[in-house]
Amino acid sequence: MARALTILACLVLMAGCTSDGDGAPASGVATPTVAGGPTPTYTDYATAREAFTRRSDDGVLGATLEDAAWLRFEGDAETVQKAHRAYFDYGYTSFKIILRAKEYTRPTEEVFLLEDDGGARVQGKPVTFTGSMRLVDDRWQFTFDLSFQHAITKDTRWLRLTRVKDNATVEWSFR
What we know:
It contains five helices and ten strands; from the N terminus they run αβαββαααβββββββ. It is an alpha+beta fold. It has one domain. The strands form two sheets. The protein has a five-stranded mixed β-sheet with strand order 1-10-9-5-6, with no helix packed on it. A five-stranded antiparallel β-sheet has the order 2-3-4-8-7. A hairpin with a 5-residue loop joins strand 2 and strand 3 (61-65). The radius of gyration is 17 Å and the shape is globular. It starts with a helix and ends with a strand.
């Protein structure tokens, strides 16, 4: 019986590690890795990634802000840097996006707005789409990467990402 409960607990934890952000809040505090700022300390991938994951109140937009705090758990440094070039090579603000729309859409035609407390307002859309689309709970689900020519600094206090089509919004507050 104890063994069965242990196995069940492990399965539940593993399921949580592969979550696509369904239970994530629309806004919350995170500590990004920036020059001159405090160094975030997370002990594992799931906890670190969860701290940077948000889902809009309507469930349409899910986004995980890329940060070394959770990327470092993905593998060796060289592999991680190749997989996240915009973040590491150019200092762009980058996201892993999960879009769940009731209508079929083309991710490369979606427009997003990135704003911060310093007055930055940058619009962009995915240049490429290398994910799969599928129906999940009667919504089309698309997964893709999105990057903006924008850098988070130690002075950045908040960051907001909005899907322009329906104003689905997620936000990060920084300490």
